[in-house]
Amino acid sequence: MSRIRSTDTKPELLLRSALWARGARGWRCQWRAPGGRIDIAFTRWKVAVFVDGSFWHGHPSKWQPGRWTGYWDEKIKRNMARDRRQNDALVANGWEILRLWDFEIEHDAHAAAARVTTVLRARQRGHISNRNRELGRIALGAPHGDEPAAARTSAT
């Protein structure tokens, strides 16, 4: 596990490169925020972008509860619980949250960057409420199945 990167992963680098190409500026990497670190934080507009690994953050195609006994099952459950706590803390402080799967970015980084810049532009104009639409998550990539399946817009 010592070789598993937590920062500057391939999907993060692809997304940052695509954001730069789209003209997005002003983000901070691994920024400390309420609830933990944000992968890409646009602090001026309070937009938090997380690049979630499909295995580590419990995507249904990579992880099913009870499939592994012991450590790994509990580890991924803890990761998912931490993600929910972090989302709640950020929402309570007025942040907009986007959670993107690593495979979404690897498949089409420019489409993922377009989703981020769309939220940024809306936030700059004040069109998105701080409530993050219902459950504290924007429908663009909330990873933990708390929203209806129709609200999830990822390629699974």
Please explain how this structure is put together.
- Helix content is about 40%, strand content about 15%.
- By secondary structure, it is α+β, with helices and mostly antiparallel strands.
- It has one domain (about 10-145): VSR Endonuclease (Endonuclease, Chain A, 3-Layer(aba) Sandwich), CATH 3.40.960.
- Strands 1-2-3-4 form a four-stranded mixed β-sheet, with helices on both faces.
* Sequence of secondary-structure elements: HEEEHEHHH
Quickly name the level 1 CATH class: Alpha Beta
Specify the helix fraction band. Answer: 25-40%
The fraction of residues in strands falls at 15-25%
Q: By helix and strand content, what is the structural category?
A: alpha+beta
* CATH architecture classification name: 3-Layer(aba) Sandwich
The CATH homologous superfamily = VSR Endonuclease
Largest sheet: 4 strands, mixed
Please, how many helices?
Answer: 5
Concise synopsis of the structure shown:
The chain is of the alpha+beta class. The chain has 5 helices and 4 strands; from the N terminus they run αβββαβααα.
